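#lab-general

N.A. 3:47 PM
ok so I finally got the sequence cleaned up, no stray characters, all 731 residues accounted for. can someone with queue access submit it? mine expired

B.Y. 3:52 PM
send it over

N.A. 3:53 PM
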Amino acid sequence: MPRASYRAFGARARFLDGLGRYAIAIGGISVIAAVLAIFAFIAREALPLFQHAGLQEGVHFPQNRQVLAAALDPYGEVALLAGKEGVEFLRLGSGESLGLKRPVILDSQQVLCAWVAPEEGWLGLGLEKGSVLVGRYTFDIAYDNSIRSVTPALVFEDPLELTSESLEKVVVRHDGEGRLSVAGITAAGKIALARREQKEGLLGPGPVATDRLELSLPLPGKPTALLVNRAGSQVLVGTDQGEVGEWQLGDLNEQPVWQGSIRTSTAAVTALGYVLGENTVLVGDAAGQVLGCFKTGKGKTYKIAHRLQAHPAAVSGFAASARDRQFLSADIQGNLALHHMTSDQTFFRLQIDQSGIAALVFSPKADGLLLVGNSGEVHHFGLDNPHPEITAGTLFGKVWYEGYEAPAYVWQSTGGSDDFEPKFSLVPLIFGTIKGTFYALFLALPLAVLAALYTAEFASPSLRTVIKPAVEVMASLPSVILGLMAGLWLAPLLEQGLAGVFVMLPLLPLLVLGAVWVKRRVPGQGTRGLTSRVELGILVGLVLLGGFLAFGVLGPLAEQTFLGGSMRQWLAASVKYEQRNSLVVGFAMGFAVVPLIFTICEDALSTVPAHLRAGSLALGATPWQTAVRVVLPMALPGIFSATMIGFGRAVGETMIVLMATGNTPIMDWSLFNGMRAISANIAVELPEAPFHSSLYRVLFLSGLLLFGVTFFINTLAELVRQRLRDKYSKL
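B.Y. 4:20 PM
back already:
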């Protein structure tokens, strides 16, 4: 070849070499950048879970009326202020009064107390002669050329005669179906109750039925706080001795039933309230304590489940969010605090009015607060706290949820009602991921490693060319197909032949060892024709024989003899058996992981230098000793890498776990029930999660956790593999 041609060839080779080098570098950097971008996106979606609550003061202005209770429209534009002079509506943006509703009866009687029920749109004014002036208010929303206007309206009903004595406290509730419940505490310490119900007639509204009761408190001390639920079926009263008692109410004219009491403190109970759902009762006392109490599954009386950050003075009132379990608490020194019941968080505390807070309101959309001080100051705040239920404790610790006997790890993201208490513990999902991975590797790892050892060291070349491609074809099966087969075919099969499964596990090794023992006892001429193909055929025959004996003969015999005819019914006495369980997952996911581990292990074993095998055999070692003592240690880095890659494959598996288990987030190591893994949970929950909701972001956080664990395991595996390779490369 001419010299010029050599130069041209060398230049072209250098150009192609440089081009390939840069292409590989760009490809590698692109992969790393893509992984980092995925990590950044997942982290960006998850991190807002831990942002602090934001409070922005909107308006602040004085007004000259004494306010006792208040309400707010859904958009935070108009406020209702109920006071001693009547009910006034204010436009918060300008402080403009939209009118004072003052019934004629207020000319002869003074308002002593008031109550506003924002969820129902009802209010009550307690008068000095024992009657209650009940009214219904609305905020009418209208749009004109995309401009919103809020128009308040209020209609008073005839005064309801509750008692003949002056009232100190009043509660008004309406169930939305015609029943109005009014309760009050008189100056003499009596508890009066009146209920009015609109009956349905044949052609329209029927007659109105009313009953009145005086509740006799079977507790020492005087009543100091009162609460009625929306349905009018429960009355709670707090006393100056620190006790909270309960009555249950039935239909009209039925006598109330005393349910008992709970001592919450030695200090007087000064405030009672509900959080969303009215299952948890808020208790505030003269010592400033803020408690959350609810009934457990087996109890009829309340238990103290939550103790939140206390106030420096006596608690004066509560206001609960209508969207989640946030609530406000105030004390007589004008301090305000924002809490969340489930997570036991107190987000902030600030002093509004040193003379105290007369009324506090949580906006209907949980995005604002309205406060009125005893001095008449009106404060309106904007609130930004989208994920109050999320803390490290609620994600990874035990939480005492409503109705539970004790704190527990629970994942239950949705329920059947708007007042459902979401439960976002990731521990059951982490447990399910570990459980599924353990059972998958428990079956797959020894099978894959030993199969690779046989293929690389003992199988003939012709047999190896059949086994390895066949196993690699197994890896091409989609996991959704494996999950479908496991859920619809394998799970019922294992349920029917459960005893056969446990008989087969020891029976197969015994048959194989028995065949080996027979072969060793047969003279050499009798086994001379046993090639590896023949031995493999015998092994397959033994497996088929073992399956027949286990499922057709010994399994049913064991059930009839020892298990009363059915292993499943025998297990039911102590263990709950679910058709789609961890055993099914172990078989199905093991089937998916075996080809991956087998291929890498077989490659690692095959690349061990041949001279090491030859030297071992030349020194008198048997093929088995050579494989175990020489080849296996040299291939250990590759085997470890295969194990970690198989572990990562099992951790991230989605469809098999989703379809082959009951997908129930429980924490139980039993083989006979299922679990829910992180990956399967993301697949199930994410399509239904509202955008940027707490559930949406918690799912991204769980994905970030899965991403981090996989990255850590793979990095650790690579470091260990490098050290093992350096160690054994010197042999």
